[in-house]
Amino acid sequence: MFIVLKKQFLMIPGPTMVPERVIQAMTRPVINHRGVLFEGLLKDCTQRLKTVFQTNNDVILFPSSGTGVMEAAIANFVGKNEKVLALTVGVFGERWAEIARRYGADVEVVATEVGYAIDPKVVEARLAKDTNHEIKVILVTHNETSASVTNDVQAISAARGSHPALLMVDSVSGLGAMELKTDDWNLDVVVAGSQKSLMIPPGIGVMAVSAKAWAKADVTDNPKFYWDAKSARKALEKWQNPYTPPVSLLFGLQEALKMIEEEGLATIFVRHRKLRNCIRAAAKALGLKLLAQDYCASNAVTGIYPPEGVEAKKVQKIMRETYGVTMAGGQKALEGKIFRIGHMGYCAISDVMVTITMLEMTLVELGMKVELGAGVRAAQQEWMKA
Amino acid sequence: MFIVLKKQFLMIPGPTMVPERVIQAMTRPVINHRGVLFEGLLKDCTQRLKTVFQTNNDVILFPSSGTGVMEAAIANFVGKNEKVLALTVGVFGERWAEIARRYGADVEVVATEVGYAIDPKVVEARLAKDTNHEIKVILVTHNETSASVTNDVQAISAARGSHPALLMVDSVSGLGAMELKTDDWNLDVVVAGSQKSLMIPPGIGVMAVSAKAWAKADVTDNPKFYWDAKSARKALEKWQNPYTPPVSLLFGLQEALKMIEEEGLATIFVRHRKLRNCIRAAAKALGLKLLAQDYCASNAVTGIYPPEGVEAKKVQKIMRETYGVTMAGGQKALEGKIFRIGHMGYCAISDVMVTITMLEMTLVELGMKVELGAGVRAAQQEWMKA
């Protein structure tokens, strides 16, 4: 293959592709973060974010990655030695549990086989046994990118029932790609990141906090300054941040949130579901095994096993170097065993079709017997369904 | 089909898609067009353009579209009442002939059936009869976008032999997409535009002028100021333009010429040929009739007849509105009868694959019996050829 001009497709589960409109917004001159222009900007972003979170709760921003706002949730709402029930279906669930341990919590893990979601009945049964209400906080990953699995957060919240534990949701890669009703589902804390379906570069963590969670923050005394949610809430009274916020990213966030409003949340969720269906149909048509079970397959990312005898990293290498399509690999135990296609945020059917087309050629180049066009056809048929 | 985020693909035969690097270069602050920075910019662009033209002749720039520099060629090198032989295979060949008529030339047209190139033997025979050397100028379109046809300019130059007529070539849509050896092929005047394979927006016309053509300019006295090539050549001694040049476009041109150098002309020509082969193979696999004959099919644009009973404009409309792929229609006699896919300049195999994928879905939506994926497969097989 000769070295030829190719366009780049960032098909990883975050950071994701950033729209031109957002890039342009971020090139505006930097403004005073204590001035009136910034106050208008932060107010607008905060109000628009509430729509995306589907909440009337406070929404606060941290200048951080997703992991930062996950730590902020623990630091503010989990007391030392408290019992925490961590529902984990992969690497990011494990990470949140580990953060809680670092803050001295007594973490009990409920895990699943890879590719499966948490069974709400298991949660219900565990909480039913907790008659003394020792469990103070439940942690759950909404969308687990490492396993390409989405947990049914609504059902898990229902399984909690009248148990008083806080339900804290890591929706870093879920928010904006799939349904998340913070208020209707009675979620106490929800955290999200900017570099996923919010369509801007990494650097902003977002957190929605219920009244019940705020009350918990009043009696939780972990050392913190940067992650202090109450000081962030206080600064919001003046539409400011306690310390220097990433001004240019906020210009980008405002523009991205306008784009989300224009397309509409309902349409965005349908788009993500259809993109997932296209990729899964293509993988099946090409005889490839999927990581996640159908019933809990993520709308934001799809993990795929390479054909027998082919290294996943070789597939990724050819895709990236020959065809300009960057996919992710497996994490931890899955390293080298799968590749993952991110399809969240500023991702269109054209990006998915390019990925499938190039994947077919890559598999042929690796000596596999693949019917060229078969994956594309399956994806086309899926896309054209009403 | 629900209204969903889609990305835009400008698949017309110019203006073409502009690379991000070029867009960014054009956002630099405007500079003084009589200052030292501009002189360096124009010198660099001019020298890089000579490489693309494969010439040691003078290369001059006009702030104009392609039509502007076509007129400049007539105004400078064609005298009133002179006999001009216009070799036309489509709309832009006819346009150049018409410009010559407006300047009072006695134009004799050699035309072809649509989809066919000029036969160099016909040119040779006509010139052989011109024993008194009445024909002073030969006009030929290198790449005729309206017919998706490329003329064999090298063979036409050879057919001219020792006849003293100037050979003037409209390579507005050819330069940078396909081989053009200005010096080796003994071309007296070559004109090109910025909005095609030079990968920048419309606004710069380029002209390469041989010593023989300059001598002709000395005895040609059409009224002209803006199009005065000799004044442009004189201004070039100070690396300036006689009047205000489009500074920002020149920033973009410089960046685009760097990209051309990086990919290399030879690779670029192979890319364009392969993109053409992919599209033609796909069209044939889908049972669609091609406008241009195989032997002269353009590497820059491909005209395609819609299936029997389907309006070309309906195909274009669905492609554009549902799938974000903008194609061109037919011109003049071909209006409404064909659609044309531009694949020159900043066009990658991913763009072509998206176009084919979306075209298949469009044809199905129009009720055609199309095997989904068949066009893509044909294009994949073509692309993977050594």
Give structural notes.
Chain A folds into 2 domains: 9-16 and 265-384, Aspartate Aminotransferase, domain 1 (Alpha-Beta Complex); 20-262, Aspartate Aminotransferase, domain 2, CATH 3.40.640.10. Helix content of chain A is 42%, strand content 15%. Chain A has 13 helices and 13 strands. In chain A, the strands form 3 sheets. Chain A has a 7-stranded mixed β-sheet, sandwiched between helices. In chain A, strand 3, helix 4 and strand 4 form a beta-alpha-beta unit. The first copy, chain A, starts with 8 loop residues before the first strand and ends with a helix. The relative contact order of chain A is 0.17. At the A-B interface, helix 10, helix 12 and helix 13 of A face helix 10, helix 12 and helix 13 of B.
Outline the fold blueprint.
Two copies of one chain form a homodimer.
Chain A: E1 9-11, H1 20-26, H2 36-53, E2 58-62, H3 66-77, E3 83-88, H4 91-102, E4 106-111, H5 120-129, E5 135-141, E6 143-144, E7 149-150, H6 153-160, E8 166-170, E9 189-193, E10 205-209, H7 211-218, H8 229-236, H9 247-263, H10 265-285, E11 301-304, H11 312-323, E12 325-329, E13 339-342, H12 349-365, H13 374-384
Parallel strand pairs in A: 1-12, 3-4, 3-5, 5-8, 8-9
Antiparallel strand pairs in A: 2-10, 6-7, 9-10, 11-13, 12-13
Helix pairs in contact in A: 1-9, 2-9, 3-4, 5-6, 10-13, 11-12, 12-13
